[in-house]
Structure to design on (672 residues):
């Protein structure tokens, strides 16, 4: 089965693939074969082989091609003229492995085709595009979307507007692969967490009608919730500052396979909160992106309106705004006419994933790029709601310590090249979405896709810069005599000063480990696979598998003391002393942790055993996980971090588990 990268804290083609006959490459290991546009080459990979092809590119060029995985699953790597990696593609395990890249460096670029694990077999490679990167925004859009076009790929749609006038609207690829239905700009698509702004808006509507107050404790409307030490208010739940654990993460920790169709019902949301013994943080003190809270917000709308959420939204928002192709899908079984199916890469090419259950409020809205333009135009000239509601939604919440979260009521708030930007992205199981609004110029863009590998946020931001660049500050290479940062000029040895371990301040058991392997730089989050990062300046780096970035910080003496991980808001981490890595438990040490553990909160057993000098975690319906030791009595693996607890006699009696947005989940040792 093809590996899929973890998304940190759960929760990233206009040419037919008709092939041109070409020579058989035979034994390609160690060779550098010239690859030309429109030409297909065939090859065979044996264990340990790497096939290498070269393409001559000029400044600011765009490259797009495809490897037909005839009988071998491959990984494709794109290297710049300096030999550093510029892209890595590891999608479907069969059929077409599409790759694309934008280059600012002239010279010979290398395309490497590598067999996945120890597989062997035949493949064909075709270069579809090798051309100048378009300066016209519409042509640039076609280039960037080419990987998602054609009748054998999940598709996407783009809509761009300014001052009420649509500048661009186009769809690519397929909405349904089984029935050959093309993606269209009026195709209903699951927008995932982009839905949160609608839930925030619904709460604000109810507040404006006097049916609730943002300062109401949520137990006023949902009295069956537990009474925590500190009251959680309506305002806390729509600003991601409630302190509640993330219910999706908790359900995954219990062994449920949500990516593979396991059922989850909205009623479980209250059950999960009722079993939570305490909040993760004092309400209002910490930003922790949270689907639990927005699910509860939708329930509050229902109870204050005495209507189902999908009915309320239709009658109070979608209908009045003329959003005729938008609806809340109350359950994954509800039929949605003219919808796009979601697809993820799989062994057979793509697999149909369906939708995540219990997502109402946090997600669950199906819309179109055309309807989302209507929605955002209501921000500028409200016909539903009021200007005061819109302003509140776009105002950053301020934490108890006075720090802004850069998140309002269902919307992120920041800047892009000096221009105010209000936005939210979304990801269901396979659908991807991004909606951006620039209030200062009354302009916006939205992109949607039913391809799990689609980078909605990065694509939307790049296209926005192309369409609205006249209203943005010049890029750095235009604003100063200096040139924009060129990753090829970065000396990998300079990264050594950043290498090490960093603990998230909000979740100290979540460790970010940075390492260097010759010229390649990596980040590994506790319990997750190692991911490559690339430099964007001498102190900032971008992740290649998810939309996130890292900024390292120094003190007055120039020592690296911490970092900020930018993903769904800012997450600060503090550098750990090297001594934390000194604990190397022996086999006898590991034996102290073995046994059977039970979490009353999750109603789940975990088993720990020693196998081949390693501590291994066994869970029901989940692959066994080899655990790696961190600081003393702490381990990570299988998407989790485990912090063990001892009694006064030094005996292990339990541990606290974390997997990103949910932490401090206690497991008690019930048997050695």
């Amino acid at each position: 089965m093809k590996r899929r990268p973890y998304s940190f804290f759960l929760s990233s083609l206009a040419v037919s693939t008709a092939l041109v006959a070409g020579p058989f490459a035979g034994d390609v290991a160690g060779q550098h074969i010239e690859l030309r546009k429109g030409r297909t080459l065939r090859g065979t990979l044996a264990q340990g082989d790497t096939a290498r092809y070269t393409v001559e590119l000029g400044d600011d060029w765009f490259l797009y091609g495809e490897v037909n995985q005839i009988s071998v699953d491959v990984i494709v790597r794109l290297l710049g003229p300096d030999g550093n990696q510029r892209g890595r593609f590891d999608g479907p395990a069969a059929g077409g492995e599409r790759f694309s890249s934008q280059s600012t460096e002239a010279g010979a670029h290398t395309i490497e085709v590598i067999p996945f694990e120890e597989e062997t077999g035949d493949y064909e490679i075709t270069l579809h595009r090798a051309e100048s990167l378009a300066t016209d925004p519409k042509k640039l859009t076609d280039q960037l979307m080419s990987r998602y076009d054609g009748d054998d790929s999940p598709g996407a749609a783009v809509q761009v507007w300014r001052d009420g006038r649509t500048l661009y609207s186009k769809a690519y690829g397929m909405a349904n692969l089984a029935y050959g239905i093309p993606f269209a700009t009026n195709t209903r698509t699951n927008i995932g967490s982009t839905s949160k702004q609608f839930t925030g808006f619904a709460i604000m509507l109810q507040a404006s009608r006097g049916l609730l107050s943002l300062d109401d404790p949520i137990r006023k409307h949902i009295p069956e919730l537990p009474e925590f030490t500190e009251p959680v208010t309506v305002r806390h739940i729509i600003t991601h500052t409630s302190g509640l654990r993330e219910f999706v993460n908790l359900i995954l920790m219990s062994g449920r396979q949500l990516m593979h169709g396991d059922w989850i019902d909205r009623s479980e949301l209250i059950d999960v909160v009722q079993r939570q013994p305490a909040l993760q943080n004092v309400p209002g003190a910490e930003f922790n992106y949270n689907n639990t809270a927005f699910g509860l917000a939708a329930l509050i709308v229902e109870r204050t309106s005495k209507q189902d959420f999908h009915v309320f939204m239709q009658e109070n928002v979608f209908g009045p705004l003329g959003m005729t192709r938008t609806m809340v899908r109350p359950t994954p079984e509800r039929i949605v006419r003219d919808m796009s199916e979601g697809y993820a890469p799989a062994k057979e090419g793509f697999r149909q994933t369906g939708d995540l259950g219990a997502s109402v409020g946090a997600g669950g809205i199906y819309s179109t790029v055309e309807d989302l333009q209507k929605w955002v135009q209501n921000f500028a000239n409200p016909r539903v709601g009021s200007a005061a509601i819109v302003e509140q939604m776009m105002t950053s919440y301020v934490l108890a310590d006075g720090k802004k979260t850069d998140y309002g009521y269902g919307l992120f708030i920041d800047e892009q090249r000096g221009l105010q930007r209000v936005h939210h992205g979304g990801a269901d199981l396979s659908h991807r979405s991004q909606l951006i609004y620039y209030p200062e110029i009354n302009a916006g863009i939205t992109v949607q896709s039913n391809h799990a590998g689609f980078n909605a946020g990065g694509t939307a931001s790049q296209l926005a810069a192309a369409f609205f660049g006249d209203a943005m500050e010049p890029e750095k290479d235009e604003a100063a005599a200096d040139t924009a940062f060129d990753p090829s000029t970065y000396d990998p040895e300079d990264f050594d000063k950043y290498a090490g371990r960093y603990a998230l301040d909000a979740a100290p058991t979540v460790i970010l480990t940075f390492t260097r392997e010759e010229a390649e730089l990596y980040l590994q989050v506790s319990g997750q696979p190692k991911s490559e990062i690339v430099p964007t300046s001498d102190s900032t780096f971008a992740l290649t598998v998810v939309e996130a970035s890292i900024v390292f910080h120094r003190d007055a003496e120039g020592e690296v003391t911490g970092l900020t991980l930018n993903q769904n808001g800012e997450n600060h981490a503090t550098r750990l002393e090297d001594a934390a890595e000194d604990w190397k438990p022996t086999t006898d040490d590991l034996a102290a942790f073995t046994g059977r553990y039970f979490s009353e909160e999750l109603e789940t057993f975990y088993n720990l055993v020693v196998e081949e000098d390693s501590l291994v975690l066994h869970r029901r319906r989940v692959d066994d996980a080899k655990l790696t030791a961190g600081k003393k009595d702490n381990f990570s693996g299988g998407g989790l971090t485990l912090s063990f607890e001892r009694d006064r006699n030094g005996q292990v009696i339990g541990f606290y588990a974390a997997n990103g947005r949910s932490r401090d989940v206690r497991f008690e040792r019930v048997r050695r």
Q: What stands out?
A: The radius of gyration is 25 Å. Residues 1-30, 478-483 have pLDDT under 50 and may be disordered. Residues 291-305 form the longest helix (15 residues).
